[in-house]
Amino acid sequence: MAHNIKPHTFKLSDESLNSYGFWIRTSGIDLEQFKKNPVMLYDHRSYSMMPIGRWENIRIENDELLADAVFDQDDENAKLIESKVENGFLKGVSIGFDYKELSDSAQDLKPGQTRSTVTKSVIVEASITPFPSNSNALKLHHNGQIITLSADSAELNQAIPNLKQINMNEVKRLLGLSDNATERDIETAVAKLKTERETAVNELAATRTERIDKLMKHADVTDENKESLRKLAETDFQLAEKTLELLSKKSTMPDKNFRLSKGVAQPNTGTEETFDTLQKSNPERLSYLRDNEPETFKKLVENHVKSK
Fold it and tell me: Are 115 and 163 within 8 A, CB to CB?
């Protein structure tokens, strides 16, 4: 028998905080299983009542999971529920879901949240219900089991744990405040720490810049290499400082055909020398050049900086 079936669009889920203290990320919902079997129940009653219809046009729009409810016209109970929907007596829908991944990261938390965020999940079914979709009507499945949802549910606490609570007295102690300090006092203390940190960072940067500029005056390097060394100082200040200190050293150069090894001068092997190869395979030779052949060492460093 053909029926004139009228669809009713419902919001199955969104990213608002539910009454249990967590929320479900819409983009992380796996709909593949649900689309294959888009069963519609009444208030999650899969054992006491047959499905009352199916869901069609399942889609995600603006972080909301939407679907059209199509009621079974051959089921008198389904038709009764549909009538209550049409007349505005039933407005809610609720999802039965299984969580796959949780997150406690600050970027995934909302104000007032008390439990981990469900970042990945699978929809098992969706039900018409007297309650709002993100309120107490959620039905949580996990590993084939139905989890009891209530404020003091041990099962829920194990499945989606409470977030670690901040010990405000400990925070006050670390900030040097008394136990009766207000929230405003804490905000003021944190703002002060932030300002002091920014000041310290700026002062350190200025000190380092001054140090590099001073070393530049005594180092025999080209303008191009000076710029490279300044950039190096921004990422690795100690290496740039040490390099400039070495380039500033002056000493008597011995015969360049000899190198120092374990305190004994030995002839150079004649192989091509670079800063990288000497640093890896012959650090004694590199130290010798630094202390005794500053011009040669300077060229090695300049070539090393240019290659970076």
Answer: yes
User: What amino acid is encoded at 121 in this protein?
Assistant: S
Q: Identify the pLDDT of residue 70.
A: 92
Which tens digit of pLDDT belongs to each residue from 103-147? 888 788 888 888 889 999 998 888 888 865 445 445 565 655 555
pLDDT in tens, 86-98: 888 888 888 888 8
| Structure-block tokens of residue 100 | 């796959």
In the block, tokens 């949240």 appear at 113
- Burial letters 148-166, b for 16+ CB under 10 A, else e: ebeeeeeebeebbeeeeee
Cα separations in angstroms, 108 against 39, 61, 99, 104, 111? 30, 20, 15, 7, 10
Report the distance separating Cα 22 and Cα 115, nearest Å. Answer: 5
Three-state DSSP at 300 gives helix
- Helix, strand or coil, per DSSP, at residue 145: strand
pLDDT tens digit string along 32-88? 989 999 999 988 776 567 899 999 999 999 888 999 999 999 999 999 999 998 888
Residues 100 and 122 sit within 8 Å (Cβ to Cβ): yes
